[in-house]
Specification:
The chain is 57% helix and 0% strand. The chain has 89 residues and is mainly alpha-helical. The longest helix is centred in the C-terminal third of the chain and has 41 residues. It is built from two helices and no strands. The chain has one domain.
Length: 89
């Protein structure tokens, strides 16, 4: 019987998919590019301040666009109601 917090790891569950390159192919590809070992993208951002500044800019732009779309819906609804009342007279 196993402990409730312990999980049994199946080595086959964490293997790459059938179309993923093998370790030998990845190592050969890395050596062809002049690397000592296969490269896995990711890691530390060399310029975190620039990335954060860009994220803040696009976040504000997103909020502004959502606010404009919502406000445009209200404005168009008011204009439609005014035109409906003027046309009914």
């Amino acid at each position: 019987m196993t402990d409730p917090g312990v999980t049994n790891r199946d080595p086959e569950a964490h293997s790459p998919g059938p179309f993923a390159p093998s370790e030998d192919e990845r190592a050969a590809s890395a050596r062809a590019r002049g690397l000592a070992a296969p490269y896995i993208a990711g890691g530390r951002d060399p310029q975190p301040d620039e990335g954060l500044r860009e994220e803040r800019f696009y976040g504000r732009l997103l909020i502004l666009m959502v606010a404009i779309i919502v406000a445009a819906g209200f404005v168009l609804g008011i204009v439609a109601n005014i035109l409906a009342t003027v046309g009914a007279e």
